[in-house]
Write a structure and sequence with these properties.
The protein has about 190 residues and is α/β, with parallel strands linked by helices. The protein has a single domain, classed as 3-Layer(aba) Sandwich (Glutaredoxin). It is built from 5 helices and 7 strands. It has a 7-stranded mixed β-sheet with strand order 2-1-5-4-3-6-7. Helix 3 (about 120-130) links the parallel strand 4 and strand 5. The longest helix is centred in the N-terminal third of the chain and has 24 residues, at about 1-25. It comes from Hyphomonas atlantica. Keywords: Cytochrome c-type biogenesis, Redox-active center. GO terms for molecular function: disulfide oxidoreductase activity. It is found in: Cell envelope.
């Protein structure tokens, strides 16, 4: 009797494995060709909000001048919400600086928006340079001016959102990543080919 129970258990397991493999193989392919490039360091990219327009809420340059994401239309933009008190934010900042060096220009730009407090504005600007990202223009959205954070749907820090030339979301990533990795640079190159 025990022998039959083992055989039955084995057959049930085998059927479950075959079913799982067939189900995985018959899944619907994604309509978004860019998802194929979301590998390695950026495999956590979320495409579920693709096509959503960029928030129109202002954020601010270091001198207090307001700016919106609409000012960047015509470029692919990587928006990164970060803070000096956020260890993962600081960890990824050097790679964002490297990505800006490698691909920044007329068609692509990294836009880093600090969510530090108003009294830490100058420190955050200084820290951006210390973290190897002095080539990224400093912007801030203090807690009193968080509309851009809320309207963009950032739920934690760091949050990175990519927008196309028309100001429509491509994808987002919650958490840190190495944006200078071969996968991330390849993803940006794929965006710029369009």
């Amino acid at each position: 009797m025990t022998r039959l129970a083992y055989i039955a258990l084995f057959l049930v397991g085998l059927i479950a494995i075959v079913y799982a493999l067939m189900s995985a193989g018959s899944g619907k392919a994604s309509d978004n060709r860019l998802e194929a490039f979301a590998r390695g360091e950026i495999e956590k990219l979320d495409f579920s909000k693709a096509g959503t327009p960029a928030a129109s809420s202002p954020f601010y340059r270091q001198d207090g001048t307001p700016v919106t994401l609409q000012a960047y239309q015509g470029k692919v933009v990587l928006v990164n919400f970060w803070a000096t008190w956020c260890a993962p934010c600081e960890k990824e900042m050097p790679s964002l600086g490297a990505l800006q060096t490698a691909r920044g220009g007329d068609r692509f730009e990294v836009v880093a928006i600090s969510v530090d407090s108003e009294e830490d504005r100058d420190y955050a600007a200084q820290r951006l340079g210390e973290l190897g990202a002095s080539n990224i223009t400093f912007h801030i959205a203090t807690p009193e001016q968080y509309e851009i954070v809320y309207d963009s749907g950032a739920q934690g820090f760091p949050t990175t959102i990519l927008y196309d030339e028309a100001g429509l979301e491509i994808a987002r990533l919650a958490g840190d990543a190495d944006w200078s990795s071969i996968e991330a640079v390849g993803f940006i190159d794929a965006l710029l080919k369009d």
